[in-house]
Amino acid sequence: MCTHAPNKDPQMTITHYERTREQNIDLGIVAEGAEEEAAEEEVLGVKSKDFDSTQEVMHFPANCPRCNVPCETNMKVVNIPHFKEVVIMATNCESCGHRDNEVKSGGGMEAKGRKISLRIENRDDMSRDILKSETCSVMIPELDFETEMGTLGGKFTTVEGLLEDFKTQLKETNPFMIGDSSTPERSGKLGDFCKELDLIVQGEKNGVHFILDDPAGNSYIQSLTAPDPDAQLTIEDYERSFEQNEDLGLNDMKTENYEEN
Q1: Which of 95, 112, 173, 244 is deepest in the core (most CB within 10 A)?
Q2: Hey, which residues does 57 pair with through a beta bridge?
Q3: CA atoms of 72 and 61, how far apart (whole Å)
Q4: Are 135 and 218 in contact (CB under 8 A)?
Q5: String of DSSP letters for 45-95
């Protein structure tokens, strides 16, 4: 017992040392008979001392969401400049050909929601990087278009890529757009809407506003003038409503004094 704590005890000497391999075996830290190199901790196949999440692509087994055949999922951490880290997961099934990718924010939920509005002026705006989290809704007021929270899940793509994904989903999920049920009369407004999206992608329809509304604050549109302000981008942080907190599960979440009833 140190009688001078917290001050240094002149009669006490403390020495730190590296444990031997035999001591590690006795403590159960290293398996007996294992090679020294194999004894190093590994994280998803990468040795911990060499591991850098932003430089490595990690692999782990999974099942295809379409045919349930075992396949491999790739995961990588990407640092988005002037934003935050995100985790990108991609699955490619060699059995049925299904390809899927999903994006998760590497950070926590922001204190406020965020609405980002991009005014599309030319074809170059189609190549802007965009991160749409799974809690984000998308609006194009000029086309009277709005998605609900969670549509298409999390995506890290470009503005053009996201518009193409919306068009593909409309064609795949609506029976009047494809197959025997497809007729000019039945496709109607959906067909016209897809044509409007094509005009935007081709740069023939400018002045359109592309809006991301994310109550979790984890969505992003690339600024072409960062770190200076971008005249085409408007970013608004806002207080979430009770309904938005309810959708995010925050109203029932207790982070302080949670041990109390």
Answers
A1: 244
A2: 76
A3: 5
A4: yes
A5: TEEGGG--TTTPEEEEEEE-TTT--EEEEEEEEEE-TTS-EEEEEEEE-TT
Q: Do domains 42-105 and 113-247 have the same CATH topology?
A: no
- Is residue 164 classed as helix, strand or coil in its secondary structure? helix
pTM for the whole thing? Answer: 0.66
**pLDDT tens per residue, range 75-95:** 888 777 767 777 888 888 888
Beta-bridge mates of residue 96: none
Amino acid found at 220:
Y
Secondary-structure class of domain 42-105 per CATH: mainly beta
Q: Is 235 helix (H, G, I), strand (E, B) or coil?
A: strand
Q: Which residue, chain included where needed, has tokens 């925050």?
A: 250
The yes-or-no verdict on residue 37 having pLDDT over 60 is no
Phi/psi of residue 161, each to 5°? -60, -40
* Residue 163 CA: distances (Å) to CA of 46, 140, 176, 212: 37, 10, 20, 13
**Domain limits of the chain?**
42-105, 113-247
CA–CA separation, 171 and 194 (whole Å): 9
Contact 150, 134 (CB under 8 A): yes
